[in-house]
Amino acid sequence: MNNLKYWIWFTQSIGYCTTKAKQLTFLYDSIEEFYKGGEQEWRFSGLFSDKEIENMSNTPLTAADEIIHKCNIHYYDLICLDSPEYPKCLFDIDDPPAVLYISGMLPDIDDRMSIAVIGTRKASMYGIKSSYNFGYNLAKAGVTVVSGGALGVDCSSHMGALAADGVTICVLGCGINYDYLRENAKMRSDITYKGAVISEYPPDTEAYGYHFPQRNRIISALSDGVLVIEAGSKSGSLITVSRALEQDASKKIFALAGPVDSHFDGSNMLVKNKVATLVTDYTDIIDAFDDIYVTSELDCAVRTLDEVVDVIPIKGKAPTDINGLKTNDLTEVPVHKDNLNLTEDESAVYYAIGFEPVHIDKISELVNLPVFKVLPILTTLELRKLIKCVQGRSYRLI
Q1: What is the per-residue pLDDT for 1?
Q2: Tens digits of per-residue pLDDT, 349-397?
Q3: How confident is the model at residue 27 (pLDDT cuts 50, 70, 90)?
């Protein structure tokens, strides 16, 4: 908690949606150490422009104290980048928020299956009904529904999740105390009882247009997959999809089947270009995650769809028998296939991967190849159905 005010000071000085916050976590033991190093240390880090250093010099630490005081008054929680409870899936992106402001309780997003439901603010009745139904059924199946709290698709998916008494996360493009879309105030309040309303911006921050594309990277990072309900050719939802694929090239993208209509041009383009999988029902999404849709209640046994009510989907692999070995044993005894006609580099990467997920950076280190060379090899191995990408740019054997 001691580091919190320094991270808030950092955002007040430098801004949001920057890679520099994460870089500092690798360069310094704490953000407090960086702050107390002063201008000389800030220059020495090599990360900041003269203008940014001037901003840091001119931003008092008391500004952070005032923000913390405001949060305490409203009972908002705060999580900073180096907090133990900071979501790993969010930390893994290049530009994670330095601070998360939270109203409600953020679920254990790293261990719980989550789907982003996104689309236009000016949704058709078909889009409104569909987003509500997907939100309801996914939440009823124990999936966390993530969206942006806007009118149209966002609001309907949140409402569907709430109607199912499920968990939903609303990621705002403004401060959580700002009176954004007053008509949705009750919905945001209801969300805090079963999930969380979150933002990277201090509580009273207004909603500026450029905040929403920045906000989209958080929605995609928190989600195992992204469902596009209704999106035109210039929809902001396409930005969310783009950010999702930048964060994890194998992240699952879905698009609702829609008419050949300008309201669905963006959605249909995603399907046509094979970026998104066409879906008509929530079970299409559940089925796409058969490797992680499991529950701890039955010793990680895979659940069938008629058993999913009141079950929290846990990210993991269900036990199976392979040559008499249970899944738990496979982490120690990987089973690699023979006679695959792999190149030397492909073979090295393949045998560096076992049944426990291995991050791409670790694979790169093990095979002594740069990440940009490892990535296409991983793609090749995936296409040959030898390995599978799991959340956070990690890979495991199939």
Answers
A1: 52
A2: 998 888 778 888 889 888 888 887 888 898 888 888 899 887 667 888 8
A3: very high
How many structural domains is the chain composed of?
A: 3
User: What is the domain-level CATH number for residue 391?
Assistant: 1.10.10.10
CB 359 within 8 A of CB 392: yes
Query: 103: which DSSP letter?
Result: E
CA–CA dist 198, 200 (Å, integer): 7
User: From CA 317, how far away is CA 320, in angstroms rounded?
Assistant: 9
Contacts of 12 (CB under 8 A, 6+ apart): 59, 63, 64, 67
Q: pLDDT by residue (tens digit) across 259-274?
A: 877 878 999 899 999 9
Judged by DSSP in three states, 185 sits in helix
Residue 177 is assigned to a structural domain of this protein: no
Q: Indicate the residue among 288, 311, 346 that finishes a domain.
A: 288
Distance CA 368, CA 345 (A): 10
Chain-centroid distance, C-alpha 53: 31
> What are the b/e assignments for 283-309, b being 16+ CB within 10 Å?
eebbebbeebbbbeeeeeebbeeeebe
DSSP 8-state secondary structure symbol assigned to residue 55: H
Q: How many whole angstroms separate alpha carbon 95 and alpha carbon 196?
A: 21
Instruction: Answer whether residue 232 is part of any domain.
Output: yes
The distance from CA 320 to its chain's CA centroid, rounded to whole angstroms, is 28
- CA dihedral (318, 141, 383, 325) in degrees, to 10, reads 0
> Does residue 203 sit within a domain?
no
Q: Convert the pLDDT of each residue in 88-102 to its tens digit.
A: 999 999 999 999 999
Q: Which residue range(s) make up the domain with 276?
A: 114-170+214-288
Q: Could you tell me the CA-to-CA distances from 238 to 241, 244, 371, 389 in Å, in that order?
A: 5, 10, 26, 22
Task: Read off the pLDDT band of 250 (50, 70, 90).
Answer: confident
